[in-house]
Amino acid sequence: MKNIIRMLAKIALLLIMMWVGSSNAGNNVIITSIKNGEQTLAVEYLDKGGDVNFKDGEGNALLFYALVSKNLKVAKLLLNRGANPNVKNKFGSPILVTAAGSGYTDIVKLLLKKGADSNARFARYDNVTPLMLAAQDGYADIVDMLIKNGAEVNAETDNGDTALIAATAKGNLPIIKLLVKKGAKIDIRSESGYSALFIAISEDNEEIVDYLLENGANPNLTDDNNDTALKLAKRLKNPYIIQALQKAGAK
């Protein structure tokens, strides 16, 4: 059955391309083929003059369809034929942001190799970067790869959040350690005045509080309400964290 469907799709594509060249009709057929993982049709489409950077009526490019279907071979084919590695989807998200936030390591690697901007921003989502999303969702390999390819480890969103703050909010200590090792500034504060230490305290995460303090977090920073980390810990009544902060010189 699958072979019959592919054969029919192939015939349809060839007829459409002969009829209207690289028209939208032919482009729509190739989108369906890419979604179904059909590489042969993609090759024929491009060989017959199809637009490698075509976007459908919703504003999504062929490369995005290769991404969402996790089709590395087609993604590689499109990029090798000139697809824009910095293309944005219908929401304005750069493809690297989508790939990094989805944990698609191989596609992230391919996009970076082809010139994708490691510091691309998703304006609609507070100008978040690929690194922030990878850190937030715990994709260590992607975090490391992005930083090695020039991602700014201390980049901030419109709200002042960083990759470190995102990882701390998710309680992901291995990612936090990786970011700090790569130069993340521990005391950067978000728009609300919260540093990673404040977030770890608010999440009752004793292990992360210990790590941050051991690696130079300032226990006497204040938030926008002029509250200190110690005040927050006392309000949340965690004796372990209170003691750890006092030991670190918190007032």
> What overall form do the CA principal axes indicate?
elongated
Cα end-to-end separation: 72 Å
Q: What does the average pLDDT come to?
A: 88
Structural class by sheet pairing and helices: mainly alpha
**Number of contiguous helices:** 15
Name the helicity range: 40-55%
Radius of gyration: 23 Å
Number of strands: 0
Contiguous uncertain segments of 5+ residues: 1-23
Q: H/E series, N to C?
A: HHHHHHHHHHHHHHH
Strand residue content: under 5%
How is the main sheet built?
none
What features would you describe in this structure?
It contains 15 helices and no strands. It is mainly alpha-helical and 251 residues long. The N and C termini lie far apart (72 Å).
Question: Strands, helices and their partners?
Answer:
Layout: H1 2-20, H2 24-35, H3 39-47, H4 62-68, H5 72-80, H6 95-102, H7 105-113, H8 130-136, H9 140-148, H10 163-169, H11 173-181, H12 196-202, H13 206-214, H14 229-236, H15 239-247
Helix pairs in contact: 1-2, 2-3, 2-4, 4-5, 5-7, 6-7, 6-8, 7-9, 8-9, 8-10, 10-11, 10-12, 12-13, 12-14, 13-15, 14-15
